[in-house]
Amino acid sequence: MAAHRCSRSAVLLFLCALSLFIVADSQETASNGGQRDNNAVDSPQAATETAERAVEERRWEASEAEAAADRQDTSAAENELPASVPRPKDDFQEELVIRPLHSGDIYASFQFRTVWETDFMKGNKVSHYRLFPKSLGQVISKFSVRELHISFTQGYWRTMRWGQPYQPSPPGAELWVWFQDSVTDVDGTWKELTNVLSGIFCASLNFIDSTNTVQPSASFKPLGIGNVTDHRFLRYATLPREIVCTENLTPWKKLLPCGSKAGLAVLLKSEKLFHSTFHSQAVHIRPVCQDWECKTTSWELRQTLNVVFDLHTSAQGKREWSLFKMFSRTLTEACPLASSSKIYIDVTDNPQGDQFEVSPATPLLSQAVVLGDRRTFSVYDLTQQITFGTVRSLNLLIRWKSSEGDMLRPLLHAERYVAGYGLQTGEIHTLMYNNHPYRSFPVLLLDSVPWYLRLYIHTLTVTSKGKDNKPSYIHYQPSKDRVRPHLLEMLIQLPPNSVTEVTVQFERALLKWTEYTPDPNHGFYVGFPCKEESSYFVRVYTEPLLVNLPTPDFSMPYNVICLTCTVVAVGYGSLYNLLTRSFQIEEPSPGLAKRIANIIRKMRGVPPL
Amino acid sequence: MAAPLTLLLVVAVTVRAALYRSSLADLISERVEVVSPLTAWKRVVEGLALLDLGVSPYSGDVFHETPLIIYLFHFLVDYAEITFMLADVITAVALYMAVTDYNKQVFRKQKFALEADLYPLDCLELIRSPKEMYYIPLKVAMFYLLNPFTILSCVAKSTCGLNNAVIALFILTTIKGNVLLSAIFLSLATYQSIYPLTLCAPALLYFMQRKYIPVNFRRASFWWFIAQYAFMYLGSLFVIVGLSFFLLGSWDYLPSVYGFILSVPDLTPNIGLFWYFFAEMFEHFRLFFLCVFQINVFFYTIPLSIKLKEHPVFLIFMQLAVISIFKSYPTVGDLALYMSFLPVWSHLHRFLRNIFLVSCVLLACSALFPVLWHLWIYAGSANSNFYYAITLLFNVAQILLVSDYFYAFLRREHHLTYGLYLKRKDGSEATLVLK
C-alpha cells in the first residue's frame, strides 16, 4: 500500500502525458495480447477519468478475470478491440517487455502480434497475404487448425529465482493444437501437421508420433473463442530432448512482417540470444473476436520470444544492462508496418527508483495486472520520434543502485525428481509448493510419461502436510507398448502454505536395441507435468527428468542370435536324436588296414576278410 | 500315508506364512526370475486399481491376466496369501493322488507283464517293487511344496501357482479317468496360458489306453473318442471365453493376453530364451524368429506322442518340461511343476548319464541369477550379457536334464524288451548306442 501511495505523483504525471499522447495517436488500442490482457490504461476513454477511477476499473477487470477462470484469455481478447474506428483488415503490433530480475539477471520478452480479419475455413481460398505469414495461413486452412501453440525452449525457467514467466514453456519443444470439429481423421492430420511444422521451423517435430502425443481431457483448453471443448480434437506433444538453436530462430524471424530488418526484431541476433541462460521462442495462433459483439472472428498470430541474460556470463558481473549490451544493437526505428511498437520496463519493484535507474527516463507509465499481480511499466513508444532523442538511436540503460531487496516468493512452484536406485524400478516424486499464506488453490496436474516407464497407478499417493490429499478428479490412460504414453490428469486442492507431494512408482522397460537413442547411457528425457492453476490461470512446468534404462549390449546382436539359436538347436538336436534313433548294440568297427583291405578285395571280387 | 502328507502340508504352509510376514516378501516379489509380466502380483493389483478407476485393465500394457483371474481377485484380494497357499496345497495334493493312482496302474501292468512272461529273465533288477514305490507320491508332494522355486513363487504371489494348480487338477482328473473334468481343466489351463494345449495329446493317449481304444487312424472308435474329447474341450473353452466376454463386455482381453504371450512385446529379463534374443533381433527378422521360437513348444508334441504313445504320463512330464523351457515368459514356478515329477522316475536313475553335472549347473545358475542381476542392474559393474549367459546355461541344463530323463526312459524300455545284459555276436559284453 505504501508503495502505491508513493507512486501517486507518478500517476498524475502519467495522466498529463497520456492526453498528449492521445492527440498524437488516437488509434491506440489496448492490445498487449495475452501477456498483459487487462491493460486498461491505454483505453482512450480513460484519458479524462481520474487516476482513482482507472485503478478501480482495473480492479473490476481483474476480478472479472478471476471469475472467468481459465476462459480469461478469451474474455480479454474480446475486451481488447473496440471497433470505434474503421481500420485496415490486418494489424501488426510489436512490443518488448524488460523485467530486471532480483538476481541481477534480466528478462526480455518480445511479442509480435498480427491480427487478421479473415476466414481460412470458408470455401474461398485465401490467397492474398499482407502481414500474416503465408506459410502459416496455408497450414491453418489445409489442416483445419483452430488453435496452434508451439514453443521451443532452451534452458529451464527458474521460478524460485526469477518469479513467474510471462509465457511459461517447458524445456525442449512443445506443440498443442486444437483442430476444427470438421476434421475426421485427427491423428492423420496431426501427423501431417507435425511434419509440415517441422519443415517450417527447421525442428525435429517429425519425431512427434503416437508414443509422445496425448489428448488431455481437462488441461489445455482453447485460448481463443469457441466453446467446443471436445478433447478428441486436441493433441498435445512435447519433445524434451529437442535442442533449440539458430536454425530455429531464422525461420521464426522470417514470419515477421518486417523480418529482422526494422523494428524490435533488429535486436534478435542469434549470437547474443543463444548466449543466455534461458531462451524460449513461441508461436501462438488462435481465433479472437473482432469487436465487442463478437460477430466476426479474426485470426491472431502471436510470436513471442523470451530470453534471460545471465548477470555473470553476459554482463561480466557488473549490475548494469543496456540494449546494446544485451543484443549488441540499439533501436533506431519502429517497424513501419506496425501500428504500435513499444518497449515496457517493469518498474514495479522500483517504486522510488532506489533499486535501479533507467535512462533515458520516460514520462509514460502503464499499469497492468499480470498473473494476478499489479505491475507498473515505464513505456517507450517507438512510433514517436521523440523517443529516439537527438542521437536518433535508443539505447535503454538499466543500472542497479543496490543489490538488496527480496523477491516475493512465487505463489506456485513445482519441482520433480526420480527416487530409487538401480535400473529396475523407481519412483517419480512431484512436489508442488503453495506459498500463499491463507488461500488454497485448485491445481490441475497433467503428466505424460513415456511407455517405457511402466507406471503403477495403484502406487499413486498424493500427500499434503503429511495427510492424504485425495484428488477430486483423476483421468488416467495407461500406456500401450510402442503405441502411446501414459496420461495422468488430476485435480488437486493445494492447501495454503504447504507442499503437496505426488509419488508414483514405475518399472523401467528393457527396449529393443534399435529403440535406444544413440547415447543410451545418457538416459531418457521424460516430459514434465504441467500444473494449471485456475483462479488466474498460471501454467507451471517442472524440469524434465533424465531416467536411465537398462541397456542390452549393442555390440553383439549376431552373437546373441547365434548363441540363443545354439541353445534351441541343442534342445532340438537332443530330442531329435532320441526321437528318431533306436538303441542298437555297438559292433566293434574293424581297423583301418582291414577296411582298406576289404575295399580292395571288393574291387577284386573276392569275399571280404 | 495321510499323516506324513498332513505334516508336509503344515510345514509347507508354515514356511510360506513365515516368509509372507518377513521383509523378504517384497524383495522376492520383485525378482524377475520369480515373476514375469504375465504373472506378477503387482500387475494384478494394478489391474484391480484400473478397474476401480473405471479404466479397462486391458486398455494398457501392464495387465495381462485373464478376466477370470481379475474377477477371482476382485473378491479375494484381501485373502491373496491364503489363496496362493491354497493353490500350492491343491497342486501338491492333486499330484500326490495322481501319482498314487499312476503307481498302482504301473504296478498292475508290471504284474500282468510278469505273469505273461513278457520281460527277459535278466531284467528282474529293473522290476519295481511296491516298497520303493510306496514313498513316491509323498516325495512328489514334497518336491513340489518344499522346492525353493515353488516357495519363492508362492511368496511372490505369482499367478503361476494358480496355473500349476489347474494343470495338476487336469493331471489328476486324467489319471482318474474322468474325461469331462479332464477336458474342463485342460481348457482352463489353455485359457490361462495357451501352451498347455499340447497336453491334450497325452490326455487322449491315456484315455484310449485306459478304455482299450486302439490308437489306429483307420478305426472309427479312435476318431469318435477324439471327437468326443474335442467337443468337451472346445465346449468348455467356449463357455469360459464367453464368460470372460460377459464379465468385461469386450474382447479386449484376447489381444492383451494371448497376443501378449505370442508376440512377446515385453522384453523384461527372465529365465527364458526370448527376452535378450528379441531385444537384439534385427527388426525385419523379428516375425520369422518369433514363429520359429513359438513353434518350438508345439513342435515336439506329435513326435513325442508317437514315440511315447504307450507312456502318456511320461509324455505329460516331457510336455511340461518343453513348455517350461520354450515358453515366452517362463518363471521358476513352471520349472517347479515338472521337477516335482522327478521322483516318479526315480527308477530311471541307473540310466541317467549326467545328472550330477546338470544338477550342479542348475544349482549354480540359481545362485548366480540374483548375483549377476545385482551386478548389472544395481552395481553397474556388469552388463546384460552376464545375466544372459546365465539364462543360456540354465536352459541348457534344463534341456540336458529333460533329454537325459528321456534317454533313460527309452533305454529302460529297450532293456525291458531285449534284456539287461546284452551280448555282442561274439559273446562279449555289448554297449548300447543310438543309431
Automatic annotation (TrEMBL), chain A:
GO terms for cellular component: GPI-anchor transamidase complex. Keywords: Signal. Residues 29-87 are annotated as: Disordered. Pfam families: Gpi16. One of its GO terms (biological process) is attachment of GPI anchor to protein. Residues 29-42 have a biased composition (Polar residues). Residues 50-73 have a biased composition (Basic and acidic residues). The keyword Nucleotide-binding does not apply. Residues 1-26 form the signal peptide. InterPro entries: PIG-T. This is GPI transamidase component PIG-T. It comes from Collichthys lucidus.
TrEMBL record, chain B:
Keywords: Endoplasmic reticulum, GPI-anchor biosynthesis, Membrane, Signal, Transmembrane, Transmembrane helix. It comes from the Eukaryota. It is found in: Endoplasmic reticulum membrane. One of its GO terms (cellular component) is GPI-anchor transamidase complex. The keyword DNA damage does not apply. Its main location: endoplasmic reticulum. Residues 1-17 form the signal peptide. The chain crosses the membrane at residues 143-172, 184-208, 229-251, 257-278, 285-306, 351-373, 385-407. It is a multi-pass membrane protein. One of its GO terms (biological process) is attachment of GPI anchor to protein. Pathway: Glycolipid biosynthesis; glycosylphosphatidylinositol-anchor biosynthesis. InterPro entries: PIG-U. PANTHER family: GPI TRANSAMIDASE COMPONENT PIG-U, PHOSPHATIDYLINOSITOL GLYCAN ANCHOR BIOSYNTHESIS CLASS U PROTEIN. Belongs to the PIGU family. This is Phosphatidylinositol glycan anchor biosynthesis class U protein. It comes from Collichthys lucidus (Big head croaker). The lineage of its organism: Eukaryota, Metazoa, Chordata, Craniata, Vertebrata.
